[in-house]
Amino acid sequence: MILEEIKEILADHFEITPGSIDGETLLVDDLGAGELDLADIAMDIEDQYSVEVTEEALEGLKTVEDIVLFIEENVD
Predict the structure, then answer these.
(1) How far apart are CA 25 and CA 51, in angstroms?
(2) Predicted TM-score of the model (pTM)
(3) Exposed, middle or buried, 76 (CB in 10 Å: 0-12/13-18/19+)?
(4) Residue % of the chain over a pLDDT of 70
């Protein structure tokens, strides 16, 4: 469920279809995310899941699966 929600967030942000994203999709290399994109995505995650994405945590989020695991580990 979280994976599907993250795919929707990323698809909306990058204006692509959710079906073109999977757990192994790399945020920078595959989606072309820059620093501002990553900050926007972090804010979307914070808003949707009520978690804080620190700068240090954001640096560790390389794939879509990394985002899912981060959310699973930090949501109450």
Answers:
(1) 22
(2) 0.94
(3) exposed
(4) 100
